[in-house]
Amino acid sequence: MRVSTSQIYSIANIGMRDAQAAVNKTDQQIASGKRVLSPADDPVAATAILMLNQELARTTQFSKNIDTADNNLALEDTTLQSVVTLITRLKELAVRAGNTATLTPSDYKAISAEVDSRLGELMNLQNTRNASGQYIFAGFQSETQPFVNNGGGNYSYQGDEGQLYIQASNTVSIAVSDSGKKIFMDIPSSHNTFTTHASSSNKATPPAIITVGDVNDQMAFDKLFPENMVVTFNANSAVAPASPNYTITERSTGKVLADKQLYVSGQAIEVSGAKFSILGSPQGGVAAVPATLPFSFTSAASFAPPEPITITVGGVTETLYLDRNVNNATDLAAALSSATENIPGSGAAANASKLANLGLTVTAAGLVSASGLNITVKGGSTNTNNVTGLATTGVGTTSVDGVVAKGGDQFIIESTKSQDLLTTVSRFSEAMKGLDGTQESKDALAKTIAKIIANLDNVVTNLSSVQGEVGARQNMLESTKDLNLDLKLNNQEVLLKLEDLDYAEASTRLQMQTFVLSAAQQSFIRVSDLSLFKFM
């Protein structure tokens, strides 16, 4: 077999290259302290190392999450404790204010001033922000101020009921916030009560406001409960002389509780046991334009036997009966508004009540709907066509000039079994400001204060429950943190066994690989020196 010179060089090059690569790799292992530098070194170990590194990264992130969660819960707990401290002071003031026999109006003025100051503190606490500037009691709406003052002693919640969670481990997710609605709003009241607010569609500029109000006759209000009420401002022309006025109705049924009452800004409004005031100049409504259906008598007719005619107003339909001779429009009006029967059993005796049910009045000139709801007449015959001058057969005839009245600004009184903290404190202050020195007002104040104390106790009970939940979460964070540390140590030990280098073995291997490289180099020198030219 003949070996060419090029083959000698090629074989030597490959041998020295592989030997040098082995030396370099061992040098890198010694320099890095890692046994596995690439997946090719140990595919099984490389896969395990990757998984362990990912798990360690997750554990590190969990530790950061736990620190953040603990800070948030600590801030919430501190804030809630401050609220409890304030409530304790308010209860002391309430007990003092209950001594109506000895306190003077100036004493109540001083107590009221402190209550107002405490009210401001409470609102600031309920609008607490964390280090990131987010409101901690706003639910998911952490960029929105949760509690706002609407004027008139009314406060509203602008957040939602969301609860933020943080992942503390692979299997543990912990709530790090509580919504202000749960903590401060959804508090059981000691009695049936109500909240007030202006409709969002009100148009007055500046907006009129409704005060927080209170129940001044519990028995009367309990009869209304759980029905809500609506205060609607009518057109000024609804009363004579024209003046701002309002109507109060039950929200679900439309039942009128107070009709066309004259309005005076700030004057107390008492209805169904509730007492409140409206401040400002609410925008009035638009008066109705009556709908008319004029008669145009054509010829006389005899209604024997009786004949029906159907009238519809605003979805309400009544059938009236004509049972007499009609010689002119006056006879027609009398027949349509009859409360007696000319022909026994004709049904005409109910005509008057049916017209009233439709909200219609009738004269020789025609039918009038004061509500502005248009009138439809049909179901008649040739005779009814002749005496009314209207097409009463087929689809009939419908008035087109009616315009229904439109209400103006509205204010809502909503019955509820809950009373939020700010409302309770606000009502406490307003009750003392409303004291006029009479025994009647003192008795009313004493009843109000008894309710205030009971509701403040309910607030403390609710806060204590939330504080207990917060403490339990902090304990869970602590135990989860300890577990994460144990897992981290275990994973690090396994990782060391898989990827750390055995320096003694690596040093021995390096010496051997260096020796192999040196031998390859020396062999090549000797082989490459062989040549026939030296023997010529």
Task: Explain this structure.
This protein is α+β, with helices and mostly antiparallel strands and 536 residues long. It has helices spanning 5-32, 43-97, 105-126, 180-185, 218-224, 329-336, 351-358, 382-388, 421-433, 439-499, 503-528, and strands spanning 147-151, 154-157, 165-167, 173-175, 188-198, 209-210, 214-215, 229-233, 245-250, 256-262, 268-271, 274-279, 291-294, 301-302, 307-313, 316-322, 325-326, 360-363, 366-369, 375-378, 397-398, 410-418. Among the domains are: 188-287 and 406-418, no CATH class; 291-398, no CATH class. Helix content is 45%, strand content 19%. The strands form 7 sheets. It has a 5-stranded antiparallel sheet with strand order 5-22-8-9-10. A hairpin with a 2-residue loop joins β18 and β19. α3 packs antiparallel against α9 and α9 runs antiparallel to α10 (439-499).
Which terms summarize this structure?
536 residues; alpha+beta; five-stranded antiparallel sheet; four-stranded antiparallel sheet
Task: Count every helix, treating DSSP H or I runs of 4 or more residues as helices.
Answer: 11
User: Which parts are unreliable, with pLDDT below 50 for 5 consecutive residues or more?
Assistant: none
Instruction: Give the strand line-up of the largest sheet.
Output: 5-22-8-9-10
Strand content: 15-25%
Sheet with most strands: 5 strands, antiparallel
Overall strand count: 22
Global mean pLDDT: 85
Ends distance: 23 Å
Assembly form of the protein: single chain
Rg measurement, Å = 45 Å
Question: What class, by secondary structure content?
Answer: alpha+beta
Shape: elongated
How much helicity do the residues have? 40-55%
